Amino acid sequence: PGYGDPLPSVSPPAPLAGRQVTTTAFDHPTLVTFFFTSCLDVCPALVANLRAVQVDAAENGYGDQVTFLPITFDPERDTESTLRAYAERMNVNLTTGNWHFLRPLSAERTRKVVTDTFGITYQRTESTHSAYEFVHSMVILLTNAEGYVERVYRGPNPQAARIQADLRTLRRRDSS
């Protein structure tokens, strides 16, 4: 999806919450990205930027008015316990209830959600240090309260400050 498109509606499991979470179930801004926990390159930067936005939102009194939906494309390794350990390692505050690691149940379902539905490309490749890796698109989507994409951040390190500023602008516009 691009600017002005509706965020696709999918309901993958959110294993840390013990339920399925629908991407379009929120009536406030949502940030969606795609990652895998054993990534040593760009995924930690993507998740760290979302974490910085989470901290900023909480410090500015609207932490419960933004939702974070990182979707893994490695359901084989990204189990509930792996996602919990990753959240801890990345200092993600899971107690707020606004952060949901989403995990489609199989490689086939993941391909349908990530590539067929969201248009995010990724390819599994063999690697020497962890058996396999993924080459993937680096994207964060910011949606408005109505579920339409407002911003698409591409590249390995979208700056958290830019996302925070865009989120504040979006919140001001939506409250007018």
Name its key features:
176 residues, alpha+beta, four-stranded mixed beta sheet, 8 strands, 31% helix, globular
Can you walk me through this structure?
- The protein is of the alpha+beta class and 176 residues long.
- It has four helices and eight strands, in the order E-E-E-H-E-H-H-E-E-E-E-H.
- Helix 1 (43-59) packs across helix 4 (160-175).
- The relative contact order is 0.23.
- The model has no long low-confidence stretch (mean pLDDT 91).
pLDDT average, as an integer? 91
Structural class: alpha+beta
| Number of separate strands | 8
Described by the principal axes of the CA atoms, the overall outline is globular
Q: Roughly what fraction of the amino acids lie in strands?
A: 15-25%
Rg calculated over all Cα atoms? 15 Å
What is the rounded distance between the termini? 26 Å
Describe the strand arrangement of the main beta sheet, using strand numbers: 4-3-7-8
Low-confidence stretches: none
Strand count, sense and closure of the main sheet?
4 strands, mixed
- Please bin the fraction of helical residues: 25-40%
Number of helices: 4
Topology as a string of helices (H) and strands (E): EEEHEHHEEEEH
Short description:
Helices cover 31% and strands 22% of the residues. The chain has helices at residues 43-59, 80-89, 107-117, 160-175, and strands at 13-14, 19-20, 30-35, 67-72, 122-127, 131-136, 139-143, 149-154. The longest helix is centred in the N-terminal third of the chain and has 17 residues, at 43-59.
